[in-house]
């Protein structure tokens, strides 16, 4: 996946699962909702690098269920960008991130867990 794929998937999940982007006006979002969508897009665009990123789905073989809290309404804040020991980067929820840390698959040299947010 790349940055654009993750942004698109995040907005789709927010719309489908939580109804955060649903409204009664068809495809026209009210101003407050459009502002929130713009915030999500801007936050993800800032946090995610260009290039290929692995996601939780790439680590299904670890047998860890994803954290629904991380993946839902505030994924732009709750998901973490991590450096992998193989040189790649991954966009992960807390459950998968924990499993990868236990296996030594996440580089300990730099912690992106807060995405630069405090």
Describe, in plain words, how this protein is organized in 3D.
With 118 residues, this protein is mainly alpha-helical. It has one domain. Helix content is 42%, strand content 8%. It has five helices and three strands. The chain has helices at residues 3-18, 31-47, 68-71, 75-78, 94-102, and strands spanning 54-55, 80-83, 89-92. A three-stranded mixed beta sheet has the order 1-3-2. Strand 2 and strand 3 form a beta hairpin. Helix 1 (3-18) runs antiparallel to helix 2. The longest helix is centred in the first third of the chain and has 17 residues, at 31-47. The two termini are 27 Å apart.
Brief summary:
The chain has 118 residues and is mainly alpha-helical. The protein has helices at 3-18, 31-47, 68-71, 75-78, 94-102, and strands spanning 54-55, 80-83, 89-92. Strands 1-3-2 form a three-stranded mixed β-sheet.
Characteristic terms for this protein:
118 residues; mainly alpha; three-stranded mixed beta sheet; 5 helices; elongated
Which band does the percent of strand residues land in?
A: 5-15%
**Uncertain parts:** 111-118
The side-by-side strand order for the widest beta sheet comes to: 1-3-2
Termini separation (Å)?
27 Å
Whole-number total of structural domains:
1
Radius of gyration: 15 Å
What's the story with the biggest beta sheet?
A: 3 strands, mixed
Order of helices and strands: HHEHHEEH
* Shape, per Cα inertia axes: elongated
- Helical percentage: 40-55%
Backbone structural class? mainly alpha
Oligomer: single chain
The counted number of beta strands is: 3
Q: What's the overall average pLDDT, rounded?
A: 85
Number of helices: 5
